[in-house]
Known about the structure:
The complex is a heterodimer of chains A (372) and B (202).
Chain A: H1 4-10, E1 14-18, E2 24-27, H2 29-35, H3 39-42, H4 47-50, H5 56-66, E3 71-73, H6 75-78, E4 98-106, E5 112-121, H7 123-172, H8 181-211, E6 220-223, H9 224-241, E7 245-250, E8 256-259, H10 261-278, E9 283-292, E10 295-302, H11 336-346, E11 350-356, E12 360-368
Parallel strand pairs in A: 7-9
Antiparallel strand pairs in A: 1-2, 1-5, 3-4, 4-5, 6-8, 9-10, 10-12, 11-12
Helix pairs in contact in A: 7-8, 8-11, 9-10, 10-11
Chain B: H1 5-30, E1 35-36, E2 40-45, H2 50-56, E3 61-70, E4 74-81, H3 82-92, H4 105-130, E5 134-136, E6 140-144, H5 146-153, E7 161-172, E8 175-186, H6 187-201
Antiparallel strand pairs in B: 1-7, 2-7, 3-4, 3-5, 3-6, 4-8, 7-8
Amino acid sequence: MVTLQTLGDVLDVGVLCVDPQLVVTGWNDWLERATGKRASLVVGRPLSEVEPQLRPSSRSALEQAVRGTTVVMSQRLHGYLIPIPSPSGLERFAYMQQSVRILPVFSDAGEERGAAALIQDVTERVTREDELRTAMEAAQIANKVKSDFLASMSHELRTPIGAMSAYADLLTDGIFGEVSGSQREPLQRIKSVGGHLLGIVEQILTFARIEAGRETVRPTEIDAIDITKEAMVAVEPLVSKKHLTLSSEFAASSIPMRTDAIKLRQILINLLGNAVKFTQTGGITITVSLPSEETVAFEIKDTGPGIASHDLKRIFDPFTQASGSLSRSHEGTGLGLSVSRELTRLLGGDIVVASELGVGSVFTAVLPRQVP
Amino acid sequence: MNLDAFELDSLSELFNVGLHRAAASLSEITGQRIVVDMPKLIVCPIAEIEKPLTDLIGGEIATVHQIFGGAVVGDAVLLIEHDKAALLAKLMTSGEAAGGGRLDQSAREVLAEIGNIVLGACLSGFGDMLELPVSFSVPRIHIESLKSILGSLRTDAAEPQYAVIVATQFRLSELAVDGYMVIAIPATSLSRITHALAERFG
């Protein structure tokens, strides 16, 4: 015959039954093994005698159940119902940690007959949860240290790089004397490299701010088409240098939006710049469309080598490129796509990518017309 | 079946007493001061529950579900937005319950206990004040969408079903967490409750 107590043994839980006066009426094999107290010596005795260290909260829970209320005793709020020494190998806790359900027991006629407490040993699970939490906290601290380091180094680099570009400008303008034709080109190169370095530093700073949760959104009324054209102008020098084409298709001549103009421009410059960087022949097309009344889609399509399917998820990871982990075959920090996606999400949208090896890739940023 | 203003007021008061009892129990267990706001009630046919509930809550929701029976029968569900539920569980256990904003197994147990106390305290008011004793199933906790919750509440029962939506706020430390109860109840049980209210308070 299956009783509650034998069922408890099958399910590996303790079953403690008490009558309305809290006299023990049931004590299953699980409890015998866990406490070392035989059922024959326990049944029929008051629980307070069997467990002299029974806490008032445990007593109160059993009394509540005997009066007809189902009681839940979670480990985190109570620890345990009855004190049982902790299982060996898990000495972090002095007593076994328990998850308990106490059910009222009624006769067929509906009379109160007492309560049955189902006791589950969760000591191991709680120990693992605590270890995991500690590891997560350590990882969060390490991540913050990394972000603080990135921000600090970038700040330190920004000033001298800015100064270098400024002096190159002053020299080019002849402030320190006339500049010959043969000197002009190297000065332009210094300015160009300085601008490139500054772009990298800004990228790292943006990444560090996003990670620290310090990047704020400043929405204004803008025109999505104007911002797109500005981004296209920014990447045109690189497009020309690589003899690629850059074309556009717009769903309307003007698409009003309320969003952060600087961030939207940065997202589009990153995506266009990325497309140009990885495309050797052919061209890039940017399409701005309206998938719904509330959203705007910016689709950047290239004729690059494409991305393997197993790389598609990884390309948004910071400091990685599709070709490998930290070893990069193309110049850049490996932050462009990561930053673009985080900024897009800050503006209430997201970026998706589709790609075919040997054909090219399509990155689509979908944004709400009104930033949330 | 429409409840008049008196019946709605009386039902609100019943739930208010229950919620305060629950807050007192939780305060005693956790050693922290927990208070609840005066609840707002909406009563509607179960087929019309989607709009009022969608206006109140969305996204990932932590639910504690109990079935009750006896003099009145039905389903009772406590709903709290997942992120707030994780924070509530964490604060109630002095920062130990959940890591990373997700509900781990221990935090789910804490929520099951909270749900059991809140739902039990509110519904046992029917028994204590209205002499309509009820018993409860063991609480089950889920993390689910509103759509899934609505699906589990709607039944093909021949008898008309009603929903009593109870909206309140739990406050502890500086945190205020919106909590909602949905009591899905057949017309005969709701009628029994309104009769008992009229006899008790009328």
